[in-house]
Amino acid sequence: MTPPAAPFKADCHPILAHGAHPSSGAAISDPSSALQSSERPLLAGVAAPEDGRTPPQYPPVVASARYASAALTICVLLATLAALVLFCFDPRQYHFYPICLFHQTTGLLCPGCGALRATHQLLHGHLAAAFRFNPVLIASLPFLFWYCARFALQKARNQPLSIGLRPGWLWLILTAVLVVSVLRNLPGAPFALLRP
Q: 107's torsion region: left (phi>0), alpha (psi -120 to 50) or beta?
């Protein structure tokens, strides 16, 4: 029968065996804490997943949608205020409205000349008079209504907002605006119908 093995005894520094750090005379209650305290400065800025801290997050999408909704509300309020001013004050009688710098500089009519007078007539229900002041604006109203309805539908369905126009349509609209702008500046009786 073999004798039982002697218990294992680790050789360690006598000071460490009594719970003190070799470089200082302070006692350590847990010898493993000396190793952890020496590693803390290296890992101080790193957040471990299990410690409950989360890394900084970017602003959520909800916040940007909230800002877009607030901007849209402000635009609608400003448009309503502008329509109210145009309804009450005729641009032909009140001269606090901004002037067309292109017309003042060159003497030519731009595509927007007469738009304020046309909008005033349109707000009062005079469609023919509004067309006489700016035919481009009145002709574009169906497109503007369609675009606003499409925008509202996308907003209600929480869909991404898009213009939804092909480049060909954009070029066609730009060409039509330029042609009307040139025609309304030509002399002669037929072209006088396009001038405000």
A: left
For residue 72, give the nearest of 129, 136, 152 by alpha carbon.
152
Q: DSSP secondary-structure letter at 22?
A: T
pTM of the model: 0.57
Residue 85 contacts residue 161 (beta carbons within 8 Å): no
Task: Report the run of H or E that residue 145 belongs to, with start and end.
Answer: helix 141-156
Instruction: Provide the residue type at 17 as one letter.
Output: A
Under 8 Å between Cβ of 170 and 178: no
Pairwise CA distance, residues 38 & 21, whole Å: 12
* CA distance linking residue 28 with residue 21, whole number of Å: 7
Query: pLDDT tens for residues 93-142?
Result: 988 888 888 888 998 998 888 999 999 999 999 999 999 899 888 888 88
